Structure formats: C-alpha cells, structure tokens
Amino acid sequence: MNAGDTSSLPAHAVTLTPEEISNLRRRVDNHLDSTLGRTRFNGSILVAKNGQIVFEEYTGFVDPRTKKDSITPSTPFHLASVSKTFTGMATLRLWEEGKLNIEDPVSKYLPGFPLEGVTIRTLLNHRSGIPKYDHYMGEMGWDKRKMISNQDVLDFLIANYKKIPIAPPNRGFSYSNTNYALLALIIEKVSGLSFKDYLKKTFFDPLGMKNTYVFTLADSARYMPSFYYSNREYRFEFLDAVYGDKNVYSTVRDLLKWHQALQRENYFKKATLDQAYAGYSFEKPGTHNYGLGWRMYLLKNGKKLIYHNGWWHGNRTSFYRMTDEDAVIIALCNNDCRYVYKVKELADIFGDYMQQHRRYADDEPTQVARAERPRQAKATTKKKSSHRRSTARK
Length: 394
Fold this sequence. Notes:
Blueprint: H1 18-34, E1 43-49, E2 52-59, E3 61-63, E4 68-70, E5 77-78, H2 84-96, H3 120-124, H4 133-139, H5 150-160, H6 177-191, H7 195-204, E6 213-214, E7 248-250, H8 252-263, H9 270-276, E8 288-290, E9 295-298, E10 304-312, E11 315-322, E12 327-333, H10 386-389
Antiparallel strand pairs: 1-2, 1-12, 3-4, 5-7, 6-7, 8-9, 9-10, 10-11, 11-12
C-alpha cells in the first residue's frame, strides 16, 4: 500500500491530488523530524486523509537490542489503552443489536457484582467510581506469582469491595482499567463468545484486519515484547493477561481500516456514534473529556478531536481522529518513547485544532527515568536526524 493509494476509498470520498499528498507529506515529515527525529523511536507511523495514506514510516526492529527482524507493515504492536476503542464499540454493537442496554446495572450481567448504581454506561465513560485493579490487587494481597484473569478481577472485587476505596457512581470521572476488564466479561456473557473470538468475528475479519488479534496466554510465543527506552526488556508480569482494557495487538494499516469503518455511513448508527463521541464529564473546566471508549478534546472553536492514547510497559500508542476532515494520525512504539504523543500536534495540518501555541499534557502515564530520556542531538543546519532518514519509506 503506497501513499495516495485509493483502492480502499469509499465511493463518496474526495480523492487527493498528487500535489495535495506531496504537501501533506512534507508537513508531516518536517514535524516528525523536529520531534521524533531526535529520539530513539522504534515503531510505526501512518497519517491518512480521505482514506488515502499521505505518510507512512517504519523505524527500528522488533527487538532493538539484537537489531534483527525489521518492523514492517505487518508487525503488530500492543495497543495498550487504544484497545479500549474496540471494547467500547463492541459493547455499543451489542446495544444496537438489542442484546444489552447500557443503562442496565452491571449486576444484571455479572452475578454477584456488589455495587448498586453502577451501569454499563458508567463503565464505558469511567464514572463507575471503581479504582484500577492494577493498583489495588497487588497492594491488597494478590499473589504476584499468579496471573490475573478478567474473572479474577471480578471475583476479587466481589470479595473485597468493602475494603477497596470505591467512590459513589456517576459523581465524577475517574479513569480506571477495571471498567474495561469488566466490560470484556459482559461482552462474553452476552455474545456467548470469548472476547477474542467476538472481536475477530465482529470487527477484525469483516474489516480485513489480518494482523490484529487479542492477546491471550496462548500467544506468549509470538507476541512482540516491549522495552525501556534504554533497551532493557520489560518482564512479563501478573497483570499481563487481562484484556478489554488492553491486549489488542494491531498495526497502523489495520487501525486505518478501523478508522475508515467508523467513518462509514451505517457501519454504526449515527445516534450510537453521537453517544460514543459525547463528553460525559464536566466537573472540571477544560478541553479534555471522555465519551464511551474515546477520549476527546472539546475545543472552544467547536472542533472535536477524537482519540485514545495508550501506555503499558514499553508500549506507547497514539490514535488521533479528525472526523470532520476524515483524517487520522497513528503512531505505535514498543520502546517507551514518550514523545510518540507529540503526533497529536499534526492535527493542525488538517483543521484548526488550536495547538499552534500550546502543548497538551500527555494523557497516559509518562514515567520515564531521567537516564532513559532522549539525548538531544547537537544543533545542525545542514542535515536532519539520521535516525529517521536511515529508514526506508513505504
């Protein structure tokens, strides 16, 4: 698939001219040279408009220590919290089909669930009041030699809810991976399929996302490991088997297909997308908000930037969607390069997303040790970063 490829465009899409593609590619390239170009970014980047790829680049290796197995268009990365976009939309698909109601209490679908007032909607928009299982389970006595499953997340909550610092539901926004681990269980309960099989049958196979899958322990031999910025490998740990909040693996090209599907008329009902892309948390003033499986910037000029970032171990991911302009920016890495989130600034290439004179804070944790931060290259006026320039463009 080359820049400007129109083979997958919907019939109504406006085809970009070669001059438009060249201009967009130049602007993207200049931005990346000034940000990621001075780092050890190890991953994939794709930018597209109207379904046409205007920029695509693959930098580094599956294992940056050995420098074997170059990253290619078919190399799947752990999406971390970008996985929540699939969990959220799978829940809304079942809602559209009348198989669940997002206003229902969670206890209707998960027997023994002890919290009154917690609905499927409050799981989706992170207003359930339940804190992160990945914080409290280890601190409350879980044997870290034993892998946690989604069912374990539920069972531990049922057994210990009086000890867990749970807030009243729908009083405020509190981002929590527990919400999406529970949603994955609800999807399994309602669909009669494993979470992995449901996403494959409902989204991945129909959309031709051939390099996308949900990780389970059976995939331990084939998954791509992640690394600290220093190239030290992250160890596999007791939290790594829970899915729904994370554990979808995919590529930039497959995520382009996901974006295109969501842009397509009638793939989801307009009313469903309106709910998914609405903000539900206004306790604090500001542009940041959360919908049903999607983060967003609600800007003063009326523009809305739909996105999700991710961070898990050394996997850092960005998925920015300018739905008005049908443009998408995707960046995936597995070596803890926190500068991957700067690709959001590319949104201004496509519309007025009000970033010319400001820097948004990262939305995912950015705990990078001082010694692991990028070394700034010496200033030069004659050539750009050799790290990015040495990689082949696709």
